[in-house]
Amino acid sequence: MKIRESVENDKKSIRKVHQNAFDQSEGETVSQLAIDLLEDKTALPILSLVAEQDNEIIGNVIFSSVNIEGVEGVSSYILAPLAVTRFAQRKGIGTLLINKGLETLKERGAEIVLVYGDPNYYMRTGFKAGHNLKPPHKLKYPEEAWMAQELVESILTKTQGTVRCAMSLSSPEYW
User: Fold this and answer.
1) Which pLDDT does position 142 carry in this prediction?
2) Tens digits of per-residue pLDDT, 50-76?
3) SS3 147
4) Domains in the chain, ordered, with CATH?
5) Measured CA angle at 17 (ends 15, 22), to 5 deg
6) In the predicted model, what is the mean pLDDT of residues 122-145?
């Protein structure tokens, strides 16, 4: 298996991965979000990684840049969405995608990465709740699902404010 940055020609396969990873209605929503983010100028800079096996894309993760109201000069991203095709789930591919993304972002100077998801899953890759960054909307799930990871030591203790995402991720339906 190979993990690489996605290219324009991967969009159709990325859509299929997200459609396959979730039930039908959620799959449609999440796959559309993935494509919207890849085309959203307000998401830049963006990092989209794909997991490829036998020349077929079986996983995708997208990290899009975010702003923190009242905070200047802190490079921050949000992880959303993440998907692995059903036949390849529970084999560590999602974790590999996340870890490669975090490593790449750190190399590129990112300082904070956020995620809104299952704490039991994302805590395995170093995300933690209990920071001073507020989500862009009221959360449907418990606050523990709103997590952050610092790629620069102690940056989270010095940073607080409300996170503002790319336009395509700003809809309250995602929160």
Assistant:
1) 85
2) 999 999 999 999 999 999 999 999 999
3) strand
4) 2-174 (3.40.630.30)
5) 100
6) 93
